[in-house]
Amino acid sequence: MLLQPLNEPAAQRAGVRLLLLRDDLTHPELPGNKWRKLKYNLQEARRLGYDTVLTFGGAYSNHLAAVATAGRLTGLRTIGVVRGDELAAVPPNPTLARAAADGMALRFMDRATYRRKQEPHVLEALLRETGPAYVIPEGGSNALALPGCAELVAELQTQTAFDYLCVACGTGGTLAGLLTGLHHQHYAVGFAALKGADFLRADIHSLTQHATGYTYTNWELQTAYHGGGYARLSPALRQFIVEFQQRHGILLDPIYTSKMMVGILDLLEQGYFQPSSTVVAVHTGGLQAWAGFGAIVPLGV
């Protein structure tokens, strides 16, 4: 586990030690939080006797890419249900092409049905078509995702003392897992990558309640740093990513960690973090998403 100091002027002015936890470097093919969320789900699939995993995601989903890779590495068959049946008629984008190359069978679902994918009769109909499969929800966020994410906290505590732990949020599973690992100690701050993500507070609460029975109060969800919405890469955010890479030699992903870093630096300027505290931000990976943003990308992609 690599902790990289970020000598940002905003942190210096705030009197805060800012560190970036490079979880994007933990595995050559399955870096970051996606593997942590899958770890115990894949073990459970094996325990229950399944040889196939079925999951859901959008056209550029980090989760679909991770499940496909995990299937190749573990010998499990994988099925990816992709949002948007119109995508079946066009050549696959780099994310879906990579998932297919890793052995994932892609199925395309119309958007209206996709919104109802969690309804029992929709899922039952899907499984009648695909055959038996262990189902992992979109984004990988369920009770079994939490212990894998909680292990990050234990690993971090062997490296440094800290006061705040910051992470980007899509479905909320990673933040929920970190909360269970923090055991009411320290403070967690989530940064929503989606516009209109207030619903995530209830989802995170539900995940932690189901997994541990506890109500955690040592956390906050920041919803103002979505950058225009999920998978929206504004010129300003792209420029921030380029300049951050020039300063630190670290490439951020365009959907999650970059937005978190924008938020952290803004909160530092606002005096959100206590002076003399240590703030650890988690780089959760997701660099494969750059393939979906055209030819003009930062160095190293």
Automatic annotation (TrEMBL):
Q: Supply the InterPro entries for this chain.
A: ACCD_DCysDesulf, TrpB-like_PALP, TrpB-like_PALP_sf
Q: What cofactor does this one take?
A: pyridoxal 5'-phosphate
Q: Where is the Tryptophan synthase beta chain-like PALP domain?
A: 11-285
Which UniProt keywords are given for this protein, alphabetically ordered? Pyridoxal phosphate
Q: Which residues form the active site?
A: 61
The name this protein goes by in its record: 1-aminocyclopropane-1-carboxylate deaminase/D-cysteine desulfhydrase, PLP-dependent ACC family
Under the GO molecular function aspect, what terms does this record hold? Answer: D-cysteine desulfhydrase activity
Q: Name one Pfam family in it.
A: PALP
The entry assigns this protein to a family as follows: Belongs to the ACC deaminase/D-cysteine desulfhydrase family.
- Residue positions of the PTM N6-(pyridoxal phosphate)lysine? 34
For this protein, the record's Gene3D superfamilies field holds: 3.40.50.1100
